Input
Amino acid sequence: MNVIWFSELNKESIDVAGGKGASLGEMYNSGFPIPPGFAVTAQAFKSFLEKNNIKEKIFGLLKDLNVDNNSELQNVSKQIRDLVLGIEMPADIRNDIIEAYETLNVDKKLFEKAGKALDIIKAGRDPPYVAVRSSATAEDLPDASFAGQQETFLNVKGNNHLLESVKHCWASLYTARAIYYRVKNNFPHEKVLISVIVQKQIQSDKAGVIFSVNPVNNNENEILIEAGFGMGEAVVSGSITPDSYVLDKNSLKIKEKKLNKQEWMIVLDPNTKKNFKKTIEPGKQVLNDYEIKKLGELTKKIEDHYKAPQDIEYAIEGSRIYIVQSRPITTLKKVEAKEEVKEEEEKRDVLLKGLSASPGIASGTVKIVKDASELSKVHEGDILVATMTNPDYVPAMKKASAIVTDEGGLTSHAAIVSREMMIPAIVGTDKATELLKDGDIITVDGSKGEVYKGKIEIKEEKKEVYHIEDGAETITRIKAIMDIPDMAKRIAELDVDGVGLVRLEIMIAEGGVHPSKYIRDNRHEEYIELLVNGIRKIAEAFKGKPVWIRTSDLRTDEYRNLEGGDEEEHETDPMLGNHGIRRSLKEEGILRCEFKALKKLQDEGYNNLGLMIPFVINIDEVRKAKEIFKEEGLTIQFGVMIETPASCWIIEDICKEGVDFVSFGTNDLTQLTLGVDRNNDEIAYLFNELHPAVKGEMKKVIDICKKNKVETSICGQSGSKPEMAEFLVMAGIDSISVNPDAIGNIREVVARTEKKLLLDFARREAGG
Ligand code: PEP
Ligand code: MG
Output
């Protein structure tokens, strides 16, 4: 049986139609308004593999694959997908799909009665638009949902388009991420199959998402409905801000309405059959109160049916409401209802406020650290309070349960390091060292930027509103920013594609000696060993994935407490002074040691390393650094950080000079473009990486790099901001580096943005 209708499926049908198909069948037969459709069965896919004898080839390729070798994994994945796409679909499967597709347009009852007259009815109708979605199955295995099998095609029309889309869904069973996931979770490839759901596409006037439990406060007595005009994808992909309505689940009374000014919607023109963005008058409520209540009723019924909180996609065409999908919400954490949280909040005694630099909550004993000589005061679980931290403070920061500083903005040392170590931090409080005393017990809420008196139990609110069904797959690679070698193993376990920035300064601080001092005292080997040992830990944890190391970027005011640091010159403005590649070229001994450390690791077989140079303003700097790089025998990737406006203006020359990649350092780029000191909390409100001037520079650089086939990336703090990630994906960046705690969230933003780009592309292709 190659094709099976929703009416013949139920929740037990996973091995035939996958999880999605089984759920749609179950809802269809329970009387929920599901758009009609059918599944191309998992068995059809199996017989496709068998009839064409490609099964042996696929499993042969997968048999000895080392999934930890990224290029091998990518290569095998591509070979298999090409194989699946390149082979013609057997005639019986093709005919069954086309037959079912043509029938989809015909009323089911009429179909049963029509007999031979069916051909006449079919011939007279325009082929319908359908949505084509993958639905994974796994024989004998309890959980069939795998990462990376979310291939979906919308507005598919016509036999060829449909058959091609089905094959693309089949091929998506062998994306690199899906293969990797199966191997790591011990799912035999042979046991996993894929069904493809073909469902009538609703041309919605309004659409959106419903959460049967309000995910904002996890209140089980509330339903949250989001709605936008036009096709649902605009809401699901996050490209418009929808209206949101909160309902009381028992009475279905509307408790809250938030109307957003939607200015355009995506619709299909019935005459031209093309999609287009239609301008609409902003300010209108999307759903009328009747529709809100109807959706509330349906939601309650669906939740009752499944006996679990659901996340539901719906669409309204004319006056008809359809349910497009329903799945359990898996990420809800139970917390107190809103009212109770409020009461608790009132009890808090706020001592200080500042910028929330790193999220999380911790209580502990205050330890005021005036300078590095007092660092030994800090014990495991204490709260480190300082004017500002610097790299010397890192060993103590590792022990602290939270960090509070007087000074600093969101890209200051304390902010960056605490985010990487995933400990709560508040910076820019002005007077923490003055107001707090050693031994005080306090609670730090890093998410709110508030310090409370005493030890307070605060339940953390759930961060993600949307849950990711299977772990989003993205084409844009998401990498980590990390500087502390001992964190590498932990960070490598996250869903991350490599490391986009390793700052050597943290390793140097742990070594306790200023790099210039090593050179002055002829202790080159010691410096090299320190770097080799630190970098090796990261390279090892991320084997098979790229790890980009930046040459040291020491500012003269940050390293005074290291041995020999007191000999650093006093500059009027260290931010604009002797640091980055300009310093490395002046003190070539330091640079050569750093290159020698990488050469040692290159010789040990670590082929995943890359190198980049900071604070470039002249092409000569690139040329000179490259020469030394070659002289030291390095053959790893060579890159340049783009973090000065000058480097943006000479980007064409940088590309021509021969670099493998560039990476935006937006902390400096923003500082220098806007003339706003990144560490000055007085003007932190002006520090805006999304300023059109900064974005304009970045777009220009990406365009020129693309033309010259130079890879682009970002390693400044702003890559962790959803708005920046969205902008960069749209601009065509190859990878984004983020703080470890932002990996999941940014991957989801990127996945949604890519989906939107693909949709726009598909629509343009379809003539929209
Ligand atoms: C940057 O400037 O964005 C960057 C990544 O480098 P740093 O923060 O170390 O100056
Ligand atoms: Mg920088």
About this structure: The chain has four domains: 3-200, 206-328, 335-463, 477-767. The first helix runs from residue 14 to 29.
